[in-house]
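Me: I'm a chemist; would you kindly supply a protein sequence with its structure tokens?

Assistant:
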Amino acid sequence: MIDDERAITKMLDMTLRKEGFRYLFTAHNAVDALKLIGKHGADIVLLDVMLPDQTGFDLCPKIRELSDAHIIYLTARASDLDVLTGFATGGDDYVTKPFNPLEIAARIKARLRRGGVTPVSVMEEKRQRYDFGRFVLDDAAGELLVEGKEVACPAMAYQLLHFLCKNPGIVFSKAQLYEAVWGLDGDGDDNTVMVHIRKIRERIERNPSEPSHLLTIRGLGYKLAKGKQS
């Protein structure tokens, strides 16, 4: 938890411990946060934007250099530009204050459940290689290859693409995609899905504004076109 408002971190700490979490660490500025993550690692990072020594938007890429943690912005900054900036800097989720701490606990549990599959399931899933011609998602190696070259892909964009690759040709609404990938009811989270769809298109499409792989189906949602494409 990275937030300079001690009342918020105390409230979150109490709530999360009641919900069964034990390995919790708190920082009230960016410098201490990087030290904690460097020393202990992290599975989930709750990140405020307005910190005393630098913004969460500046801190997020530095966290990404140390960890593949799921980063949830918790902030009072709620403009569309702020939300887009949060995702653009490496955030996976964006929650505005005031918030219900039980909702944060539910989001964390949903994310951890997605990583809590059995070893057999992991091995079976990691054998998959999804070949769409121009791009290949090699889940055994955890790589996205575009025209034979590895392309960096943020964790949640990768998971969204992975879900679509497993279900080519099927149209999914934004709410269905949010629930499938983020693990919660997707009502009201259209922007989260749209931002990550854009991230994927920027990596796999020749022209992200005129996609030929990840298609928008007007009034319904999105689908990944079947088969290999040039």
Q: What stands out?
A: The radius of gyration is 18 Å. Residues 68 and 155 are 7 Å apart (CA to CA). DSSP finds nine helices and nine strands in the chain.
